[in-house]
Amino acid sequence: MNFKKLNLPEHVGIIMDGNGRWAIKRGLTRIVGHKMGVEAVKKTINYAIEIGLKVLTLFAFSTENWKRDKKEIDGIFKIVEEYLETDFDEYNNKGIKIRTMGDIIKLPKKIYDKLLECVNQTCNNKGLVVNIAINYGSRDELIRAVNNLIIQGKKSVEIEDLKNNLYSEGLPDPDLIIRTSGEMRLSNFMLFQSAYSEFYFTKTYWPSFNTKSFYKALKEYSKRDRRFGGNHKKI
Ligand code: IPE
Ligand code: IPE
Ligand code: MG
Q: Which residue from 112, 116, 190, 198 has the least number of CB within 10 angstroms?
């Protein structure tokens, strides 16, 4: 697994899917699946640091996930909150800068406060940016951006205006988007930012995603010929 030979991305976005199915397959509750999902997040963050990734965006909860049972929703937020509580110091020491993407004000107060605290305390860190997409929906983000621009009095807008009003303001577009669990859709994830992203789909359920899985995705990415509408390299 020599990542040094690879042409690495700067920004990886991950649609962490399959926690529920991972658990049900093992006769466990969906909540256990979400708990084990956090273990995969830890491995992913550590590997991202090791390879020198600049930005890691993790899709944790979508604007559509409110359709789920309250018990599951509450469970997910509790798991995220506890994770931030226990691992924050270690991440801060490692220079991680935490950002969020999504309408976090609508989250329960406890997790909202925790997220803000993490963002504020790490805002000057220079290491890996861990961008947590939580209560995030790309359509919601775009509408919010347009409304911001209207409030600013804009009569017409440039691409940069829109970019500067997205949650991802200041971040490079994701070079690679990984989705686990075999589903092949974006489910409202970074629709604008993914215009030229490379996609990697794996059947692996998120809790089983590990360093080796991440390396496999990076290896595949490394082989892609990104043209951005330009010429083929060799034909
Ligand atoms: C992803 O796993 C986590 C969230 C969406 C919060 P799921 O909970 O969607 O797991 P599956 O897709 O039902 O297996
Ligand atoms: C996408 O997964 C959202 C997250 C991973 C947080 P979903 O499980 O909500 O997506 P669908 O319903 O399969 O499209
Ligand atoms: Mg799912």
A: 116
pLDDT in tens, 177-222: 999 999 999 999 999 999 999 999 999 999 999 999 999 999 999 9
Q: How many domains does the chain have?
A: 1
Residue range(s) defining the domain that contains residue 48: 8-138+173-220
> pLDDT-derived band of residue 233, with 50, 70 and 90 as boundaries?
confident
CA 96/CA 88 separation, integer angstroms: 9
Q: Is the pTM of this model over 0.70?
A: yes
Terminal-to-terminal C-alpha distance of the chain: 30
Residue 151 included in any domain = no
CATH code assigned at 191: 3.40.1180.10
Active site residue 113: no
Locate the ligand 1 atom nearest the alpha carbon of residue 60 and give its number: 6
Report the amino acid identity of residue 40.
A
Distance 137 CA to ligand 2 centre (A): 11
